[in-house]
Each structure stands twice: as structure tokens, then as C-alpha cells.
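REQUEST ID: PR-0412
SUBMITTED BY: lab tech R.K.
PRIORITY: routine
TASK: structure prediction, single protein chain
INPUT:
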Amino acid sequence: MKTKLYYYYDKEADVFYLSQGKPSAKDQSREAEGDVILRIDPKTKHVRGFTILNFSQRAKNKSAFVSLPIQAELLPV
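STATUS: complete
OUTPUT:
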């Protein structure tokens, strides 16, 4: 099943959101390391998205790429 990725950056709160499909209030949240919160589908137990707190702090890192404490598989549509 193909699903769209949705993302949003809240500059005032400094929070980045990414969701596979539209976010749902039914999703469960689980805190990961490094200011990352995972959103999990309660039926499948798969990660549907994540939230990164203090997002701009990661940009201050000297490296162009920042590793997140999650793994993902991106598939072509």
C-alpha cells in the first residue's frame, strides 16, 4: 500500500514532524533517544512517524548529516 509522507516544521516550538500517511490521534507515542518521539500504529506496531524536539539544535552540528535513533526503509512509489 502506498502512503504519502507528511512533514511540518513548527519554527516557534522548534519541532519537526514527519508522518507516513495523515497523523492519527490513535497513534501511540514512544520516546526514543536524542529528543525523538516515535508515533506507532497501535494495530500493526509499526512506526508511522516521528517528532524531533529542539530541531534547530541539530543544524548547529558541524556535519551536514545527522543520524536519528530510528531505521527506515524507503520504497519507490
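NOTES: Residues 5-58 form one domain.
REVIEWED BY: pending
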